[in-house]
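Worked problem 6 (solution included).
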Amino acid sequence: MLAVTACSSDSSTKEEENWEDGFVEDSITKPVDTDTIVDKAPEQLDPITLTVHYFSQDDFTLEALKKAAAGYKASHPEVSVEWKLHLRTQPVKLAELIEPGEAQDLYWVEIPEDLQDFVKDGLVQDLSSYQGEFGSDAYYASLASSLMIDGGTYGFPITNDTELIYYNKNLVTGDAVPTLDWTYEDMIHSVKTVMKEKQLRVGLEQGARLLLPAGQSYGGEPLNEEQTKLVLDTSFRQGLSLMLSALKTDEIGGQDAVADDFVIHFNEGNIPMMVGHSQQLKILLSSMSDVDVAPFPAGPMKQQGIGNVGALAVSKKSEHSDKAIEFAQYMSGSEEANIVYATEHVTMPLLLTDKVREAWRNSFKDPTLADRLAYIVKTNAGSMYSKNGEPGYYAAIMRLSILLNDTVRDERSNSLDASFDQELDRINADWALTQEEAKKP
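Solution. The predicted structure is:
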């Protein structure tokens, strides 16, 4: 926006050795029937092709995934991995993007609602029994929860695109420099101070991305107890109102822009802070010598970040199910794969062993940047975007996000007025219809 621990082992030393690579084999060793094996040496294993259907709006992380997959193929020369890129340009069931007759071994899933569709249609395997213990630093709960549906776990988390605040160290200096535990009041004061001192028009690009996290950080619950309706209680609205006032009254935010534009604007060196993604880290580090990162601010109750999971789900149509699961486990829980994720700087590593952490720190000119990123990731737990509510939840959240963006742009009101609540009622009504539709056989 990640700890999956669906099984554990405490029985024998031999079993514990199986956890070394981050996962356990879900099989029992059987005696070898020598009568059925003639002259087949290990290097003569039948070739296998694993087909991964990669669904995304872009191919930003695909090259890093291919690089990580090369480590698996090096130790499994009989396996080749074919990546089928499906650029998703509009809402559609992902299965509809696959051509009839195409091999289906694994699916790349980035949106919880897409995974729900796969589960409802009976297309993916429940992988609960294959989930291993990856250690206390790995698999943060906010990512794992987005893969759990009705008691089952339907994927292995692979990437974690975490949202954070980038700031320009040439512009943000002295007392204005963010700390790991800074508050929303601290952030707003810092931005306003820098804007005044440097006579800048924009202080925080993409500031509207902080509206929902601000509501959660003030201790408010966005959903009712059954997680079937958006409620936005008093505490939640307090956080929203604080950020709305900063964006509308204090005008600390920038103008509407597509993602590429606001990164370019920040890169030009005239904007103190920008809400962005960890996917942009590689680009910014290579183009700016004066960039640093900070977490989303804290509220009175907690510090709420956002992490967006990319996962591999295993198809029930796979003709190589065991290999597909083994490949997904490697991509998720091996040190080798996580070192690739750590050093490519397009996603956060999931497994933070000493070896991965050392590679991560050494990959930065300033090694302490890895420590700040690790702190940021740990604030992701409970993000609204990673919750797995009732069918239609993700669409409702996206409509709420759009509604808040429209509220920021609306010059007629500086608060959450009656028109806001009327639109919220319409979102809930449409969501209720989606939930009822999902109950039909």
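Discussion: The chain has 15 helices and ten strands.
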